[in-house]
Amino acid sequence: MADSYTEVTTQNWFSRLGESFKGILMGLILVPFMIFMLWCNESEAVTYAKSLKEGAAVMVEATASKIDPGHDRKLVHVMGEAAAASDVVDTHYGIRVPALRLVRQEKIYQWVEHKKTQTRQKTGGSEETTTTYTYERKWADSPANSTEFNHPEGHENRGSLIVGDANMTASKVSLGAYRVPESFVKRMGRPQAHAVAEADLARLPVDLKSRAKLSAGVFYFGTDPQSPQIGDVRVSFEVVPPGSFSILAAQVGDSFEPYQTKAGDPIDFIESGEVSAEKMFKDAAAANAFMTWVKRFFGFVIMAVGFILILRPLSVLGSVVPLIGNIIGLGAGLIAFVLAGVISFVVIAVAWIFVRPLLALALLAVAAGGVLLMQKMAAARKPAVA
Questions:
Q1: What's residue 380's pLDDT?
Q2: Are residues 97 and 38 in the same domain?
Q3: Where among 275, 303, 321 does a domain terminate?
Q4: Cβ count within 10 A of residue 106
Q5: What is the secondary structure of 161-179 as a DSSP string?
Q6: CA 355, CA 365: separation in Å to the nearest integer?
Q7: Which of 134, 177, 161 is nearest to 2 (CA)?
Q8: Which range among 136-145, 323-332, 341-350 shows the weakest confidence by mean pLDDT?
């Protein structure tokens, strides 16, 4: 069930203009800060690329069945069957399963607030803002503080998680003759659902057993699983069973630890199945490239927001007539995004110039194209001004 409330507020032209000039300061902070963050992101990406190249050059193949002392402290690639000497145990719930690791997830039924805002400019430069607050009851990862809701009345939350989420591992996990450290085991495999049964319900501690029910393979703490109430909690489990794994890390004695490259970043990759070292390096490079581009995108967008804040007084000045204000706003937005794009490409290119010169040159060419576009836009506006 969901319900909503709508509020309408109006801000006059002078107030908007004053706020837009205050926004210039925020923009002047955002732009250089995001340039710095983009540079840091590229520096990290370059370091990671160099680390992968270094690792690929020094890596040695090792067999899981027998440990070669000559590989000690070297970066080794090992494939084999991972097994646990004992069950994984969740001491809070009494769950015991033959697996490499056991993941516990708790969720609580809560009111959740959603906010949606729409803004409309009016003749004379004022601005009307319509804000809609929508409330729905749903399963959440953590309790929501309903006192901070815009309309807390009738949406009061209560209750708490029992012990919270956990990622538990078997006490002794091996990959052939190797011992796998707990920090590695916590990252092994993709967890799959594990349904609890009546026997698990019977093993619950006394204080939990009196309140728990079984519902679709999970523990349910509440009156009726078919009609959840605010504060009810459900607890589900996932497991990673024994199986084939590949590890790329430093061999230390009969175990593993991250291999520290001279370039700067450690290497400790784990994948399910028998995966070649070449593919593990490619997968790591692809994952790094994806995250780098995600950070680039957000850096670019936030930088553009900074430029929009700097240029915003122009659109507010023209908003006495909404159509003119909108046209100026669109033009300012285009300029802001072109400026942010040009600077972003230059920062990325400079960071990669010695590592991937062709990529850097291509990015500089795109940046130059952005500068030419801005020059053409400026030239096209001169006749109109005259």
A1: 65
A2: no
A3: 275
A4: 20
A5: -SS--EEEE-S-EEETTEE
A6: 17
A7: 134
A8: 323-332
Residues 306 and 377 in one domain: yes
Q: Do 371 and 337 share a domain, yes or no? A: yes
Residue-number span of the structural domain to which 291 is assigned:
12-52+286-385
Least confident of 16-25, 64-73, 94-103: 16-25
Query: How high is the pLDDT of residue 355?
Result: 63
User: Among 275, 299, 323, where does a domain finish?
Assistant: 275
172 and 205 in a single domain? The answer is yes
Task: State the pLDDT confidence band at 381, using cuts at 50, 70 and 90.
Answer: low
> Is 324 a domain residue?
yes
Q: Is it the case that residue 120 has pLDDT exceeding 50?
A: yes
How many CB atoms are closer than 10 A to CB 262?
A: 8
| Pair (230, 334) in one structural domain | no
* DSSP per residue, 52-88: HHHHHHH-EE--SSS--GGGTTSEEEEEEEEEESS-E
Question: Cα(82)–Cα(66) distance, rounded to whole angstroms?
Answer: 14
Residue 303 has pLDDT above 70, yes or no: yes
What does the alpha-carbon distance between residue 32 and residue 346 come to, in Å, rounded to a whole number? 14
- 159 domain-assigned: yes
Residues 324 and 350 in one domain: yes
- Give the pLDDT score at 360: 66
Residues 16 and 101 in one domain: no
- Same domain? For 63 and 48 the reply is no
Decide if 231 is inside a domain. yes
**Domain count across the chain:** 2
Task: Give 12-38 pLDDT, tens digit per residue.
Answer: 888 888 888 999 999 999 999 999 999
pLDDT bucket at 1, cuts 50 / 70 / 90: very low
337: part of which helix (H) or strand (E)?
helix 322-352
Beta carbons within 10 angstroms of residue 337's beta carbon: 18
pLDDT at residue 107, as a whole number: 98
3-state helix, strand, coil in the chain (%, to 5): 45, 30, 25
DSSP string, 8-31: EEEE-HHHHHHHHHHHHHHHHHHH
Structure tokens at 237: 């489990």
Rounded Cα gap, residues 211 and 18, in angstroms: 58
* Amino acid identity for residue 9 in this structure: T
For residue 43, the SS3 value is helix
